[in-house]
Amino acid sequence: MTLELKPELEHNLEQIAFQSERSVADLAHEAVESYVAYQARIIAAVQEGRAAGERGDMLDHDEVMAMMDDIIENG
């Protein structure tokens, strides 16, 4: 697989590789791996939400706001 990067992004990647004493290939692999894992989590969460909606497992606005207030107040 070949990946083309914009010059500025490629430069930044090279700088990070140099500063961290790692190869550009290793950093690029790690970045793609991290992004793919993140996207897989997002897709799974969306699918879970859709399934909950189909089952009727939904919270109304007031319930969500109460949960958010609790998180903000209590961490």
Short description:
The chain has 75 residues and is an all-alpha fold.
Short descriptors:
3 helices, mainly alpha, 75 residues, elongated
Q: What does the model show?
A:
It is a single chain. By secondary structure, this protein is mainly alpha-helical. The protein has a domain at 25-74. It contains 3 helices and no strands. The termini are far apart. The mean pLDDT is 95.
Contiguous low-pLDDT stretches (5 residues minimum) are none
Q: Residue-averaged pLDDT, rounded?
A: 95
What structural class do helix, strand and pairing data support? mainly alpha
Terminus-to-terminus distance: 44 Å
Helix count, DSSP H or I runs of 4 or more residues? 3
Radius of gyration: 20 Å
Q: H/E element string?
A: HHH
Q: Could you give a short account of the major beta sheet?
A: none
- Helix content class: over 70%
| Count of strand segments | 0
Quote the beta fraction: under 5%
Based on Cα principal axes, name the global outline.
elongated
Topology of this structure?
Blueprint: H1 7-20, H2 24-55, H3 61-74
